[in-house]
Design goal:
Layout: E1 13-14, E2 23-33, E3 39-49, E4 59-61, E5 66-72, E6 75-77, E7 80-81, E8 85-87, E9 95-103, E10 113-117, E11 120-124, E12 144-151, E13 160-163, E14 166-171, E15 174-183, E16 190-193, E17 196-203, E18 209-216, H1 225-242, E19 250-256, E20 263-264, E21 269-273, H2 286-301, E22 310-311, H3 317-335, H4 338-357, E23 369-370, H5 379-396, H6 398-412, E24 416-417, H7 419-430, H8 439-442, E25 448-456, E26 461-469, E27 484-491, E28 497-506, E29 510-517, E30 524-526, E31 536-539, E32 548-551, H9 555-564, H10 568-589, H11 595-606, H12 612-619, H13 624-633, H14 640-657, H15 659-668, H16 679-696, H17 702-710, H18 714-726, H19 731-741, H20 745-758, H21 764-772, H22 782-793, H23 796-799, H24 805-817, H25 822-828, H26 840-854, H27 861-871
Parallel strand pairs: 2-12, 18-19, 19-21, 22-24, 25-32, 29-30
Antiparallel strand pairs: 1-23, 2-3, 3-9, 4-8, 5-6, 5-9, 7-8, 10-11, 11-16, 12-15, 13-16, 14-15, 17-18, 20-21, 25-26, 26-29, 27-28, 27-31
Helix pairs in contact: 1-2, 2-3, 3-4, 3-5, 4-5, 5-6, 6-7, 9-10, 9-11, 10-13, 10-14, 12-16, 14-16, 15-16, 16-18, 17-18, 18-20, 19-20, 20-22, 22-24, 24-26, 25-27, 26-27
The chain binds O-methyl-L-tyrosine and zinc ion.
O-methyl-L-tyrosine binds near residues 126, 264, 265, 298 and 299.
EC number: 3.4.11.2
GO molecular function, one term: alanyl aminopeptidase activity
Cofactor: Zn(2+)
Length: about 850
């Protein structure tokens, strides 16, 4: 067999090899003389030996820098320079290092370091971009205050020039910024360009005024209100829930069109992908508004969890990301419906993280080695990292959690920390031993928890036996039992709750929990007054742990829980499992949907005691990818085309059978008056949209066409267009949409993505050809690339079309993108991560394409690492 080990494996970085930087950086002064192709960066950095650190050579990171001059204590020096940085002899006593380098922002297509986007200068330094700006110990454990001076190009003054911290002298064509808070270089930011601000103010709980700005390109001013409002709500929330106040006189958000990720938490100067800032009712959907709220909060919350307390090294990334995701999820749950938010988060976790954990890219929440750190900004680090914190909070309780966090901030403010520091705070605040819990950080893979029940009618006792095991993952063949908090409740045969939620802690490979019905002597007690008969347990309420629960349950019991469970998550989960079982049987045995599922669905749809947003979720079907995973777990080979067809068939059946109820809902859920993005209106629109999608399967698209023509907001317009495309209609509407929104980048991304995401297996090739050949397919823009190539690869029906043409097309585009933008190319290779699930033909075609990608001359370290791991 061919060796697919990544070619650059000599650069593997290992957690166990951590050593501190031998010097302390006192402070940093930077001057930027901006020029599109020849920006000069002058640095002045003070260094003093760190007596606590082992000594070592003086090495500063630096990549693609043209060194003009370097000086130590004012005396010119000639350092040794490699592709990675410089070394030079330095005095034993404190010294000043100065350098002048030249860089080319407009040639920086990787969007890492200082680059240009639509004429504007901006930076992205996480994780290792600062070394492309100047020579520096570019590692998160080196923290220092920064002074920055920005000088605009002489021929073209720039109205706005920003950096981190508080503003200093701003005169003529220059601006100075001073950031007093010691920070690592990955939090450095600079923005300069023709920008306008939507401004506001915030007064902290201690009375400090803060100027807030959302900077955008002229013309976009009227799309910033929601982001600004979300920022203010986030600031208030962090004060109330975590006691965290803001710490500078200015806080700015800048929207940038060319950005590899969602957003970045640079100190006092967050930089966002414009997709997560700009929103108006006419151009953004409810989901966009919700994302903006969550991401604005996420970046703001990093000010404490990430910036004031940062990571010692990149292996500790989950220290800031898991915690900040957990915090933004709490915030969104508070702003909106908590149960609906939880279901959404679990859907995302299963779609991205479980998928990752079950394939060749599985890695622990705290990885132990990497080749390219940018490849580890993953669902496991972020979303599973957040789940681990949620479990911890559940185990210690809300009050102890808050006490532990208070201690964390008090003890570690201004420090670069580790997961050990984090857990020690919980141990010290609660007296708990977390050594077994810590395995969640080092053991990859999604645990399976199998539950069996034994009901003793005579004794009135229910015994639940839990068996946990975690399948092997790359490099980890054997797994140990984890601490798994399982929230459970009990209903009697009439559907009354007889035991409210209790948390049991699994710690062993096998464990039995006894629930007595008023008999005493059991682990847990349920109410004795109940309708006789076997009670029904509701297990893993609120999705209390990121595990796969395996339980032999009848369709009747699922329908019972869907009807009666008092835990909204498990109520939804029961319906979802019912749908999944129906679909799996349709795909594997050619079964018919069956009345039971349809009646259960109808009952939920009609139940107006339930939140419309919840009902919309209950009406949604499992994704193609979920079903492929479920079929694979059941020991069969998933056929993506058959899955797609079964989903279509079930949707038609639902549309037909539930037509009267859906049609009523469609009318009833119309939201009158002008559009507002609040959760309640969005929930009604979501339910109405779900009804429309099903109805369109049986009404020939008449309602969708009418809705498209009348829609007064993007949510309804795009919902209608999607419904039409999925039934093979909507050609005229697509053209009209394009005519109306041609000049709007973000809206045109939706136009591309919707077509790519809804293409059927038969259409996929033509759609892909048409979209990639479209003159508006500006593939160098990451959002546009993702909206076409990412959406095609994320549409399993299209991606896996039987002839393998989309595998080839996606690979061709990755090969094209890689030399320009390795980060985004590498990220998209994850489209192939599930390849081992499929039939031999598809596996063969995928392998061929991955090998072709892997063999590309000069392939980036990013993509090479990913392909190597996927093929391994
Ligand atoms: N820290 C940011 C995400 C981010 C990570 C890496 C980036 O470039 C490689 C950019 C942004 C966050 O969590 O929001
Ligand atoms: Zn983050």
């Amino acid at each position: 067999m061919k060796d697919h080990a990544p070619r650059t494996s000599d650069r593997t970085v290992r957690l166990e090899e951590y050593t501190p930087f031998p010097w302390i950086v006192g402070d940093v002064s930077l001057t930027f003389r901006l020029h599109p192709t020849a920006t000069r960066v002058l640095s002045r950095i003070t260094f003093a030996n760190d007596p606590a650190a082992p000594s070592g050579p003086f090495f500063l990171h630096g990549e693609k820098l043209n060194l003009i001059e370097a000086r130590i204590d004012g005396v010119p020096v000639s350092p040794d320079i490699t592709a990675e940085g410089l070394t030079c002899d330095v005095p034993d006593t404190p010294f000043v290092f100065e350098a002048e380098v030249e860089i080319d922002p407009s040639g920086n297509t990787a969007l890492d370091g200082l680059y240009m986007s639509g004429g504007m200068y901006c930076t992205q330094c996480e994780a290792e971009g600062f070394r492309k700006i100047t020579f520096y110990p570019d590692r998160p454990d080196v923290m220092a205050p920064f002074n920055v001076r920005i000088e605009g190009p002489e021929d073209k003054p720039l109205p706005v020039m920003l950096s981190n911290g508080n503003p200093g002298a701003q005169e003529g064509n220059s601006a100075e910024w001073h950031d007093p808070w010691p920070k690592p270089s990955y939090l450095f930011a600079l923005v300069a360009g023709d920008l306008v601000a939507k401004s506001g103010t915030f007064t902290t709980a201690s009375g400090m005024p803060v100027a807030l700005n959302v900077y955008v390109r002229p013309g976009d001013e009227d799309r910033c209100d929601y982001a600004l409002d979300a920022l203010i709500r986030s600031m208030r929330w962090d004060e109330r829930e975590y006691g965290r106040e803001y710490d500078l006189s200015v806080f700015s958000i800048v929207a940038v069109d060319d950005f590899n990720m969602g957003a970045m938490e640079n100190k006092g100067l967050n930089i966002f992908n414009s997709k997560y800032v700009l929103a108006s009712p006419d151009t953004a959907t409810d989901v966009d508004f919700e994302m903006i709220e969550g991401i604005v909060a996420h970046e703001y919350f990093h000010n404490w969890t990430g910036n004031r307390v940062t990571c010692r090294d990149w292996f500790q990334l989950c220290l800031k990301e898991g915690l900040t995701v957990f915090r933004d999820q709490q915030f969104s749950g508070d702003m909106r419906s908590e149960p609906v938010k939880r279901i959404d988060d679990v859907l995302a976790l299963r779609a991205r993280q479980f998928r990752e954990d079950n394939g060749p890219l599985a890695h622990p929440v705290r990885p132990e080695s990497y080749i390219e750190i940018n490849n580890f900004y993953t669902a496991t680090v972020y979303e599973k990292g957040a789940e681990v914190i949620g479990m911890l909070r559940r185990l210690v309780g809300a009050e102890a959690y808050r006490a532990a966090l208070d201690l964390y901030f008090e003890r570690h403010d201004g420090q670069a920390c580790t997961i050990e520091d984090w857990l020690a705070v919980f141990e010290d605040a609660t007296g708990r031993d977390l050594s077994q819990f810590k395995l969640w950080y080092s053991q990859a893979g999604t645990p399976r928890v199998e539950v069996s029940e034994d009901w003793d009618e005579e004794a009135g006792r229910l015994a639940l036996t839990f068996r946990q095991h975690t399948p092997p993952t790359p490099g980890q063949p054997d797994k140990a039992p984890l601490v798994i908090p399982v929230a459970l409740g009990l209903l009697d045969a009439a559907g009354h709750e007889i035991m409210a939620t209790e948390v049991v802690e699994l710690t062993e490979a096998e464990q039995t929990v006894e629930i007595g019905l008023g008999t005493g002597g059991a682990d847990l007690e349920a109410k004795a007054s109940r309708v006789p008969g076997r009670p029904v347990p509701s297990i893993l309420r609120g999705f209390s742990a990121p595990v796969i629960l395996q339980r032999q349950t009848s369709a009747e019991e699922r329908a019972f829980l869907l009807a009666h469970d008092t835990d909204p998550f498990n109520k939804w989960e029961a319906g979802r499992a019912l749908a999944r079982d129906v679909l799996v049987r349709m795909v594997t045995d050619g079964a018919e949907p069956g009345q039971q599922y349809l009646s259960a669905l109808q009952m939920v749809a009609k139940d107006d005691t339930l939140d419309p947003a919840f009902r919309a979720l209950a009406l949604s079907l499992p994704s193609q990818d979920d079903l492929a995973q479920a079929i694979h777990d059941g020991g069969a080979t998933p056929d993506p085309t058959a899955i797609w067809a079964a989903l279509r068939r079930l949707a038609e059946e639902i549309g037909g059978t539930l037509e009267p109820v859906l049609s009523e809902l469609y009318d009833e859920m119309r939201v009158p008056g002008p559009y507002t993005p609040d959760a309640q209106s969005a929930g009604s629109r979501a339910l109405r949209g779900a009804a429309l999608a099903y109805l369109s399967r049986v009404d020939g698209g008449s309602r969708a066409a009418a809705q498209f023509a009348e829609a007064g907001n993007m949510t309804e317009r795009l919902g209608a267009l999607g419904a039409l495309l999925r039934i093979g209609k909507g050609e005229e509407e697509l053209a009209a949409f394009r005519r109306r929104w041609e000049g709007d980048r973000l809206v045109m991304d939706k136009w591309f993505a919707l077509q790519a995401a809804s293409a059927s297996p038969a259409e996929a090739h033509d759609v892909a050809q048409r979209l990639t050949g479209d003159p508006a397919f500006d593939w160098t823009n990451p959002n546009r690339f993702r909206s076409v190539i990412g959406a095609l690869a994320g549409n399993p029906a299209a991606f896996h079309e039987p002839e393998g043409r989309i595998y080839r097309l996606v690979t061709d585009w990755l090969i094209r993108l890689d030399p320009l933008n390795p980060q985004t190319a590498a990220r998209l290779t994850t489209s192939f991560e599930t390849w081992k699930r499929f039939d031999a033909d598809r596996q063969g075609m995928i392998r061929e394409n991955l090998e072709r990608l892997s063999a590309v001359e000069g392939l980036s370290r990013d993509t090479s690492e990913m392909v190597g791991r996927i093929l391994a």
